[in-house]
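A note from the maintainers: we've had questions about how concatenated examples are separated. There is no special marker in the raw files; a new sequence line simply starts the next protein. For clarity in this README we add a label.
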Amino acid sequence: MEDVLFCFSIIAIYFGNIFKRQFLYDLLSLTYLFYFVLETTSYIAVSSNFSSSYMFLLIESNKEELTEFSASYITLPIISFIILMATLFFLIRKVRITLNLPKKHLIGVFLFIGVIVVLKMTGLIERNAYHNVVRGVYGYIELQNSVKFNNNILKEDINITSDNEVFVFVLGESTTSQHMQLYGYERETTPFLDSLKDNLHIYDNVISSHVFTLKVVPKIITSLDYNSSGDSTTSLIQIFKGAGFKTYWLANQRAISFHDNVINKIASSCHEFRFYTHLDDVKTTTLDDVIFPDYKRILKEPGKKVIFIKLLGTHFDYNKRYPEDYDKFTNSNKSTKKQRIINYYDNAVLYNDYIVYSFIEELEKHNKKSALLYLSDHGENVYDDSDFFGRSEAVLRESMFEVPFFVWTSKDFEFPNDFEYKPNRAFMTDNTYESIGHLFGVLYSDMDKDKSIFSKSFKERKRIVIDSIDYDSYFLEKHE
């Protein structure tokens, strides 16, 4: 639809004979055909339309990376298509539509503007390659300037209390603990993690502060919490870098999107950061195992390191989050919509179980003083407490907030002296920042150990969600 409408916008210019000089028509023809080159070669190369995220990657890439990409993806079909477009240029450059109509120029202009308005109003313009070129460049610039952090991180303000070497922080997506066998769910959705149960510190009373990623994640990986003014924000990445660790961000998500730019701004401060998908989260079929090669490579590199991993997890569409081998909970022709959705989601949880287990298994092979923390950004209601699936701030359900939170450590991991394991502590993930610093022994001056879920001095507080709701009182009243 977008291609057809965009074609009409170009035809409108030809129809109106708006330009007086041939070189302007040549430029128009070349520009339009290059649009097809961008769209089609992108699809041939990676089965994806040209998105704004590509511009982010192009801007960030160096000469070697671009050369490697070209060598990998420029194939005979792509070369043939480019030659076809070049040939077509010479065929259409002098095309004119000769209809004797009054005020033909004005009609052409209004037709062109009208088509662009339709593209914008319908949202189809988001599929336009040139729109995404502009939006990608603008998004990149905005990303670099959108969040202001405390950049005055002094090494003397960081208290390193351990000699731990590797920390892996796996951040899930839309995974509620209510659908995990590890947390008592009746279906076998986490058999791999269950096999490690004796080696995990599992916390069963952890909630997210919001039900949307953009609102949750900055409060997980920075000093922001519901009491913060945001005037001076410090990220875990900055602290670990200041402590001499090499930092990595591996995300099976888009580099530039409507929702994650602040998060990706934080991510871009890592020594190395990679994004593995260019489609929007609903439509992409890129599975989370795409992260494995880089993860294994990084673990082999010498030196102390922190690896942040952002999964696509169990994000809707649920049935696109796992390969066919993980279609354990199958549907039949008699399955209701509700049954199908639950089965899709549970299959996605099952595959997520394999992914997280594999990260632990690979980490264990390297015999380093290491730890892995897994939690999900928020949960999801999948017909758990109401006849709907998804998340909404207007209709709150416990499953939207209840998230898995557990830690695996190597046998020689150095725990803090005041470490205490109490699995049922009432905790909210906006204090993960303090908890990670405390657990791994890299404490910045603004970290309060009383907020750490791992500390003997941990103090429970009111868990305020959606900025003003006392979670425990709200759902206690609902149960009563």
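[label: protein 2]
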Amino acid sequence: MNAADLEALYRKYNRRRYVRPDPLECVYDYPDIKDREIAAFVAAALAYGQVGQIVKSVRMVLDKMGPSPRSYLENSGIDHLYADFDGFVHRFATGRHVAAMLAGLKGVVDRYGSLEQAFDQGTGPKDVTYAPALGAFVSEMARYWPENPGHLVAVPEKGSACKRLFLFLRWMVRCDDVDPGGWELMRPAKLVIPLDVHMYRVCCQLGLTDRRQANLKTAMDITAGFAQMVPHDPVRYDFVLTRPGIRGPW
């Protein structure tokens, strides 16, 4: 499969009607960017496991937050967060993990005004990708955690591919028929491929990496390969290449 084949795949299948089932479908419900960025972070954080259960868990959390996740965070103290999500379970994540994560998001929003502004603060002019900024963003979130949110929020410094965090960035920075976008301070050219086992196997078959682990170094390697095809948008084909692993063959 060459660049022309990938572009043909994108033009044919990069459509919103092919999104479901996916946690991204929950993000479309928020026209206000200040609500959408919080909903998207929640949806991406819970995006592991069986897709039907993922969507169910994301809906449960967002329903608890009401029509405006931003207002919910602004008006919720830590005790309120723990009480609201008491009893929640999504695979390895408990309500305490969710509450801790939301407390981190609340702290960031209270300080910077939005998640976008906070992320932009960690972006260096010489950074080739947003990987360093992502590490800075997670470190800033950690300042407000009452306890560790577990694997809901990956730590880039540990070498994780940070698939769900880079997925969140893809949703917020890109804007097309699938990705809703909304962030205006960042550029798609610096995004990193959200790498999971399925995407790793696909990219190995495409000859984009010969590394043996699906970690951050491999994600950067693959992103560099896609950037040779589409310098301005290296994650352009992420949706269409991963969709068959969720929905089955096109």
